[in-house]
Design brief:
Elements lengths: L1 E8 L8 E4 L4 E5 L6 H11 L29 E9 L12 E9 L4 E5 L2 E3 L1 H10 L9 E3 H9 L2 H12 L2 H233 L1 H100 L6 H10 L3 H5 L3 E2 H4 L7 H8 L6 E3 L2 H14 L6 E3 L10 H4 L7 E4 L11 H8 L2 E4 L2 H10 L5 E4 L4 E2 L5 E2 L10 H100 L1 H102 L4 H72 L3 H4 L9 H17 L7 H63 L3 E6 L13 E6 L6 E2 L5 H18 L4 E5 L7 H14 L4 E5 L3 H5 L3 E9 L2 E6 L2 H8 L1
Parallel strand pairs: 3-21, 3-22, 8-20, 10-11, 13-14, 20-21
Antiparallel strand pairs: 1-2, 1-4, 4-5, 5-6, 6-7, 9-10, 12-13, 14-15, 15-16, 17-18, 18-19, 22-23
Length: 1197
């Protein structure tokens, strides 16, 4: 495949349609900064399907369309076409010899893609290019950013480059998508789990309700048989039964009258005794109070005396302790002073010895130095004399042998010296001018570097802020994800409870059908004020109690009048919806607890009347108080029974657990049936969920606001970073050029200075040599006389000096030994004196501390003595107040109390007898009254039972007396029949709440539950498959990456040596951080350029870093050869020598790959096979021209 050419029209600064042809090898694109060179690379990215405006260096996609200039209008679209030679069918699915990929973008943000002018999808172009090894995500386009990414990235971030090179990026994308799908699947599982849990909660009680309903139908059929026969018996025997009951009631009434008279007499006697008993109690209480006051006063005075004596004794004991401490401190002070005096005496003696020894030491040191100096002088004189004699003889011999040669050499040196002085003068003048020029360049360079450093600081700050924003965005997204998950979970629960509420879950079928019909029937709806369960709002802690208190009434329908109730009942009959109880507001009257009984409610554990514990619309006040006005809510049964007894079971009492104490004493209780739906809980939980949803929505909005704020700030930072990076890049280019120029001047100056220095050194050497020759020629006679004299003197003095030196050395060694021993003694003595000084100082500190303690103790003793005197005076005053006759008064009061106590006991005995008689009569009267009431109730019950039974037979079984006659059982016995009917009723009552619609509802919910279970199983299987996919992808990525990474590393080692002409380098795969996947492990780069140590990439120079990064990119390209590759100024940071090596390597590599190089470096231009220049003759409009090398160099500057 060959990239033949490309056509650009309206893309960025290319306003006019241009054509760029590409041949084999290297095609260079050059031009000054800002002319639009990099827009060529951007246009290729655009044609390859790039969707990111940021990657195309724009704020949005419309920015890539030519935006106009002062002289030109903006264009409405841009278009880029890439022409490829497909004669070898590189694009296997495209059967054309030439393939043209075209992308056209309109300002409406719509794109058109074409292959050979035929419309297609973006995916078609991307797939075709990817199959050929070309694509926007590959290495077809390598910019300076890729170099910076390799150089500056952390090892963990650098890993992404090698993932992409190894070809596992697509696997990572698949893994990421699989992980997202796994999260969504698990969220769905959680939601279905919640719904299943709710359905399970419904299904379990519905199943039990259905079973109960079936049992109810069976028992009801049996009960019908017994109740019809009981009704027939009652109907036929009512008159005889009523006469028998009336006779028994009259006899009981006569006995009650006699009992009442006896009870009243006993009560009068009791009340008289009770009055006398109360008067005696008051008298005893008064005497007892007087006795208590007197006894307390005596005991208080005695206690005060004892307390003060104890205080005085404790203070005196403390004074004795303080005196003992003072004596001890004074003894310690005397011992310390004795030690100080002894130590000071010893110190003075040792100080005197030290001074004497130091004086002696100084004298010995002076003697030793004097001997050393004398020895050195004598040895030096002897050696110097010998050296001088030998040198004089050698010099005289040389001069005589080379006399003529020395004369000729001196004449030649004088001529060379004159010529060299002239040349040095000229060179110094020229070099001074060059130094001035270099200094001006250096100042410009320093200014540019300072500017670059300032820009770099700003860029670092912006980058740090950007990284911080990215971290905040990540944290924000995670929090938003968690909150959204919670929101969706709550929303699901809300939907479930909303559905329950709309379907009137928990209501009987008849009520539910009526309420559902009212939603669509305006006439029906207008006649219903509401259902009790919806009218009353119950606090959570009272739900069970109120539910038990209301019982079936919780589903009663409230209407304004009886007419509305009658209308709805007719409607129910017409629709065959079943039976419903109605509460007309105009006839229902509130019920209250009598004021006399309210005092029994003022006890711990009693919450009050149930009607006062719920909330409702005031218009329903009569209805609510009718239902709950005479019901009291208490904590537990103990409290309830206590209140019931005190009030004589005058009203109904319900505990928080739902136990019920009915009037007249019946108690209902036990565990609450799980199959009874809590109709209050649905509405309450729905309200709670809506409140939670509102809170979650507020949090979501706050997080989204923060996210938008950070995003805006991040966009501004990105633009700033991009601008700063461009500015820094321009400064780097400028600094590189100025450094090159400055180094050139410095090199030239250094060379000239070195040459001048060498010339000056040569001049000096020549001058010295000429002077030496003249001196040697003039000194022949003097040397002969000197030699003769030195020979004579040397023979005489040698013997004498040797004897003196030996003797002086013996004296010096002896003195050194004595001096060393003396210095050791001095050091030991100084150490002893120092220790003594520390001991004395420590003892003085102790004395000061002891004196301070003594002073404080004496002050405390003085204060204690004053306190003792004051306490003794107070004690004397207190003793005077204690009376002598207090004990006599106490005895007299005790006797009076004892006498009244005996009298009280006699009255108490009489009261007990009166009370026992009265209670017996009251009990008897109560029993007679209850018997009478029972007889009256029986009398009423005969009629009521008959009426109720007749009504029940009519309502329940829809039968009259005549209809029942054919159903009579001839063998029916009334007593066993009543017992069996009662047993059947108890069994039915024990069944609890009967929901006849539960059978149908159970079947519906069970079907929904089964469907949800199937969905859950499908999602579980999907979860399992996704986990396997993620595991397989991870395994495949690890294998592929390790294999490709090893190949890249080997390629890198070879290419690094070639680019650096030696050295070593390697890529190191780091260990992943604890708790992270192996695929997140970072990549570290180590490099050792020639003549340097092996070190991390971050420790190399800027040029070495860039060259190393380029070596890595070539290693990647070697692993994945591309048909063509665009290099956008990747060698900008290299010096000329490294650019040349880069260009040569690029040239060699171009045999297999077409390279399109955007550059401004001369070595790269020199090795390019073709050069195009990008110019901007018209401001804001780029053009392409074919240029020569010399023109390209000028164009790039």
């Amino acid at each position: 495949m060959k990239f033949k050419k490309m056509e650009i029209n309206g893309f960025k600064s290319f306003a006019d349609k241009i054509e760029i042809k590409f041949g084999n090898g290297v095609t260079g694109i050059v031009g000054p900064n800002g002319c639009g060179k990099s827009n060529v690379a951007d246009s290729i990215r655009f044609a390859l399907g790039e969707q990111s405006s940021k990657t195309l260096r724009g704020g949005n996609m419309q920015d890539v369309i030519f935006n106009g200039t002062e002289k030109r209008k903006s264009q409405s679209f841009c278009e880029v076409s890439m022409y490829f030679d497909n004669s070898e069918r590189i694009f296997r699915d495209l059967n054309y010899d030439e393939v043209v990929f075209t992308r056209k973008l309109f300002r409406s943000n719509e794109s058109e893609y074409m292959i050979n002018k035929t419309p297609c999808r973006r995916a078609d172009i991307i797939d075709a290019l990817r199959d050929s090894g070309v694509g926007k995500e590959g290495y077809s386009i390598i910019g300076q950013g890729k170099i910076d990414e390799l150089i500056s990235s952390k090892p963990e971030d650098r890993r992404n480059i090698f993932d992409e090179a190894a070809g596992i990026s697509k696997f990572k994308a698949k893994k990421t998508e699989a992980e997202r799908r796994l999260v969504r699947t698990r969220d769905s599982l959680a939601r279905i789990g919640d719904i299943l849990e709710e359905k399970s909660k419904q299904l379990a009680p519905l199943t039990r309700q259905a079973q109960t309903a079936r049992k109810y139908l069976e028992l009801a059929e049996q009960l019908k048989h017994y109740e019809i026969n009981i009704y027939l018996h009652q109907y036929e025997t009512t008159t005889d039964t009523k006469k028998t009951i009336t006779d028994r009631r009259n006899a009981i009434a006569d006995e009650m009258e006699r009992c009442r008279r006896d009870r009243d007499a006993a009560s009068d006697n009791y009340n008289k005794a009770m009055t006398e008993f109360g008067n005696i109690d008051k008298t005893i209480e008064a005497h007892h109070d007087e006795l208590v006051n007197l006894t307390s006063e005596v005991e208080r005075n005695n206690s005060e005396v004892s307390l003060r004596n104890n205080d005085i004794r404790h203070i005196m004991e403390r004074n004795e302790e303080l005196l003992s401490e003072i004596a001890k401190y004074e003894s310690d002070i005397r011992a310390a002073e004795a030690l100080i005096n002894a130590g000071l005496a010893g110190r003075d003696e040792k100080t005197a010895d030290l001074a004497r020894m130091k004086t002696e030491c100084d004298g010995m040191s002076a003697q030793t130095d004097e001997l050393e100096n004398k020895l050195s002088a004598m040895e030096g004189e002897e050696k110097e004399g010998q050296r001088a004699l030998v040198a004089a003889i050698e010099k005289l011999t040389d001069i005589k042998a080379n006399m003529s040669k020395l004369l000729a050499e001196r004449d030649g040196l004088e001529k060379q010296i004159a010529a060299l002085k002239t040349r040095l003068s000229q060179s110094a003048s020229a070099n001074a001018a060059r130094k001035n020029t270099a200094e001006a360049v250096r100042r410009e360079l320093e200014t540019a570097k300072a500017n670059r450093e300032e820009q770099d600081k700003i860029l670092s700050a912006d980058t740090a802020k950007s990284n911080e924003n990215l971290a905040r965005l990540t944290l924000n997204n995670n929090r938003l994800k968690d909150i959204n998950a919670k929101y969706y979970s709550l929303a699901e629960r809300k939907d479930v409870f909303t559905k329950f509420s709309k379907e009137n879950a928990g209501f009987e079928r008849s009520v539910s059908r009526l309420l559902e019909a009212a939603k669509t029937d305006t006439e029906l709806s207008s006649r219903i004020e509401g259902v009790i369960a919806k009218i009353i709002k119950v606090p959570k802690n009272y739900e069970t109690a109120i539910e038990m208190a209301l019982g079936g009434a919780v589903q009663n329908i409230v209407t304004k009048t009886e007419d509305e109730a009658r209308y709805i009942i007719e409607y129910l009959k017409s629709k065959n919806f079943g039976r419903v109880t109605f509460l007309p507001m105009n006839v229902i009257r509130p019920r209250y607890i009598h004021d006399d009984l309210k005092r029994h409610l003022d006890v711990k554990g009693c919450h009050g009347a149930a009607s006062s514990l719920v909330s409702y619309d005031p218009k329903f006040d009569g209805i609510v108080k009718y239902l709950l006005g005479t019901t009291v809510i208490v904590d537990d049964l103990n409290t309830g029974i206590s209140i019931a007894r005190a009030s004589r079971y005058a009203f109904r009492i319900v505990t928080l657990d739902g136990d019920v104490i009915n009037p007249h004493g019946a108690i209902t209780g036990g565990s609450k049936k799980a199959d009874v739906a809590n109709v209050f809980a649905y509405d309450r939980e729905l309200r709670e969920i809506e409140e939670q949803l509102a809170g979650v929505r507020d949090k979501v909005k706050a997080l989204e606001d923060e996210h938008n704020k950070i995003t805006r700030e991040q966009e501004a930072l990105s633009l700033s970073i991009k601008s700063r990076s461009s500015a820094i890049h321009a400064l780097d280019v400028k600094i590189a050029a100025q450094e090159q120029q400055y180094n050139k001047y410095l090199g030239e100056i250094e060379d000239i200075d070195r040459e001048n220095g060498e010339s000056e050194a040569q001049l000096l050497a020549w001058q010295v040599r000429a002077d030496e020759i003249s001196n040697d020629l003039n000194s022949v006679g003097a040397l002969e006389e000197l030699i003769q004299s030195q020979k004579t003197d040397a023979a005489t003095s040698n013997l004498q000096s040797e004897n003196e030196i030996v003797e002086l050395k013996k004296q010096r060694d002896a003195l050194r030994e004595k001096l060393t021993a003396l210095k050791i003694d001095c050091a030991n003595l100084e150490n002893e004196i120092s220790n003594m000084d520390r001991d004395v100082a420590h003892l003085k500190d102790n004395i000061d501390r002891y004196n301070a303690q003594i002073g404080m103790a004496r002050m405390q003793i003085e204060s204690n003595e004053k306190d003792i005197a004051q306490k003794k005076a107070d004690l004397e005053k207190l003793m005077l107040t204690v009376g002598e006759n207090d004990s006599q008064r106490v005895a007299a009061l005790k006797k009076k109390i004892a006498d009244f106590g005996e009298y009280k006991q006699r009255i108490q005995s009489d009261m007990n007898a009166y009370e026992a008689e009265r209670d017996r009569l009251v009990q008897l009267y109560t029993e007679l009254s209850e018997k009478k009431n029972e007889e009256e109730l029986k009398l009423q019950k005969v009629d009521i039972d008959l009426e109720q039974m007749q009504q029940r037979i009519a309502e329940v079984y829809k039968l009259e007396y005549a209809d029942c006659l054919p159903l009579r059982d001839p063998e029916f016995e009334i007593e066993p029949g009543i017992e069996e009917a009662a047993r059947l009723k108890r069994r039915i009552d024990n069944l609890g709440h009967i929901n006849l619609e539960a059978i149908e509802q159970c079947e519906t919910v069970y079907a929904e539950y089964s469907e949800l279970e199937k969905q859950r199983d499908d999602l579980t299987a999907a979860e399992r498959d996704l986990v396997k996919v993620i595991t397989d992808l991870s395994k495949e990525m690890k294998t592929t990456f390790n294999e490709k990474f090893a190949q890249i590393n080997e390629n890198f080692k070879v290419i690094f040596r070639e680019l650096f002409n030696g050295g070593t380098a390697e890529l190191i795969l780091l260990e992943p951080e604890e708790g992270k996947d192996e695929l997140s492990a970072g990549v570290e780069i180590k490099a050792q350029p020639p003549q340097k140590k092996l070190q991390l990439l971050s420790l190399l120079s800027g040029g070495e870093k860039a060259m190393t990064a380029i070596a890595i990119l070539f290693a990647i390209l070697k692993l994945r050869p591309m048909p063509f590759c665009v290099l956008d100024e990747i060698e900008a940071a290299l010096d000329d020598a490294n650019v040349l090596r880069f260009a040569k390597y690029l040239k060699r590599y171009s045999q297999d790959t077409q390279f399109i190089v955007i550059t401004h470096r001369k070595p790269t231009m020199e090795l390019a096979d073709a050069l195009y220049g990008v110019t901007m003759e018209e401001k804001g409009v780029s053009k392409i021209v074919s240029v020569k090398l010399s023109d390209a160099v000028k164009l790039a500057m």
